[in-house]
Amino acid sequence: MQVKEGVHRLTQGVVNFYLIEEGGKLLLVDAGAPGDWDLLVRAVAALGRGLDDLEAVLLTHAHADHIGTAERARTTAGARVWVHEADAAMATGGTPPKNDGKIRSYLLRAEFYRTLFSLARRGATRIVPVRELATFADGETLELPGRPRAVHAPGHSPGSAALLLEGRRVLLTGDVLATRNPLTGRIGPQIMPSGLNSDTPQALRSLTALDGIPADVLLPGHGEPWTEGAAEALRLARAAGPS
Ligand SMILES: [Zn+2]
Questions:
Q1: Using an 8 Å Cβ cutoff, are 225 and 22 in contact?
Q2: pLDDT, tens digit, for every residue of 57-96?
Q3: How much distance in Å is there from the Cα of 98 to the middle of ligand 1?
Q4: How much distance in Å is there from the Cα of 198 to the middle of ligand 1?
Q5: Does pTM surpass 0.90?
Q6: How many whole angstroms from 60 Cα to the centroid of ligand 1?
């Protein structure tokens, strides 16, 4: 579960979320699917902590498979939930923007069904709204465990952001950059597939926001951790292009 000192990966397949530990406090980066609650509780206990130690939930964006346990963490653990201001409306139950690709084009892919059934089983087919939110803007450093700095990189969703833990040289990329394509199954650094993006050309352009980021380890929302540095991941994601 530990992917770097004090950084823990939680997953039941398809989607990852992360617990960051600092000074006895915990930060949850993304919140999985609604059905991931038990996994979260077990992971907190395995670290010798309780839900009271969960200080905040920081969302890379407001999609259903990333926001799933956020409201429950807020009401049960008293954790504050943070999201980029451009995804705030979606997080509180507003209509998500239309995606620019057609799901139809993935219907022959086994991975499409693997993702669909895995997420449906855990209740991630619709957004569980968060009733009270805090918002951040591009470039903001948040006084939360790990001192994450937000890098706004829209395209997957309007408020998609990557989060840099500068002291640990870790970049949590959310769905700005994945290492496994949840609709085609392709492995390697890449932007998310068009069928899940609000604006795919913008998602590709947004990779420039990550150029020069001081990170060795990239932790995506989908796929395995990437340990060969940000520059190489960005080169490969650009070479891969849209899907
Ligand atoms: Zn997403």
A1: no
A2: 999 999 999 999 999 999 999 999 999 999 999 999 998 8
A3: 13
A4: 10
A5: yes
A6: 9
